[in-house]
Amino acid sequence: MSTAVLTYEEARQQLAETHRVPTLGMPEDVWLQLRGLGIGASEAAAAVGASEYRTPFEIAERKLGLAADDADANYRRKMKMAMGHVMEPVTASRFADYTGLNVQNFNYMLAHPQHPFMMANLDRRIVGVSEAQYAWMEMLFGKTVKGPGAAELKNVEFSQGWGKPDNVHSTGGLCTSGEVPEDYFIQVQQQLAVSGYEWGFLVVTIAGWETRWYPILRDDELIDDLIALEGDLWDTICRGEMPAIDVEHPKAIDLLKRLYPGTDGSVVEMAQLEHWKKVEEDAKAEIKALETTAKTARAHILKAMGSAAVAAFPDGSCYRRKVVKRAGYEVAPTSYIDCRVAKISKAEKEQLEAESDEQGAAA
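RE: above sequence
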């Protein structure tokens, strides 16, 4: 039995009336138009200024259709999304197989019943939880939970920012440290807010082979903050206005360079910002002084090492020198000495002890 494909207007009306609309078979252009009706869970962290990758300004740009089209960025985004879709069933299957939880597809776009500008898509939902599984989750969450849960699936290259598993031999990829990237934690909180669920799991496959899962409990205090901050941003967007640029955000300089790529030849008086000029000058001077200090310290160590391969320190670290050869391409072949801090190896430690014994015997 086939289901008729909804037009954008039909889908928009259904979302407004029922707070959910089926997405299975939905054309991409309709899905993207619906996304423009609010702030999605994956955009939540950026919308409230908690993401280091995007800003509220950039969210508003996209919602108002003011974002410049970047072909390279669009290509990377599509490739990442495509690989994410490939890995989703793999990640979900590994999580379900180990935990025994019933993980189902959930092909709906959701909007918050009271705050429709808050939207979410759930990768999977967890249903049919047994009493024994609820008891297990009570131990994980530290409280009794009920009802279905959300499962957000991720595919990442590196483990940075992700807490390590509790014990891979006894509990597999379960991680109860709570250490997850903030963007993803906020994404799951928005999913719980919009769906009304109490709990969920953030499930990630790292480097294509290791799957970990992190229990996430609904945080109503954080959700209240999300509602307030996203509401303020959405009101600004609905007025056709742009939020102020947060100059303390890591992306502020890149964003400003993009917004003002050239000059108009004018001169502006900056007496009121003389303080910040002084702050920048002092910071650069301090950085330069610290770099000089670091180079001086390195010179002391290199001088004492001479032609030695390893310099060992009492804390178990070492400086290791080796010849690095570069093949010639457009420039002539070169070689240089690479010296970096490392952990002394067992063989190097034994060599150090042997040389020390020899020196003692000679004395």
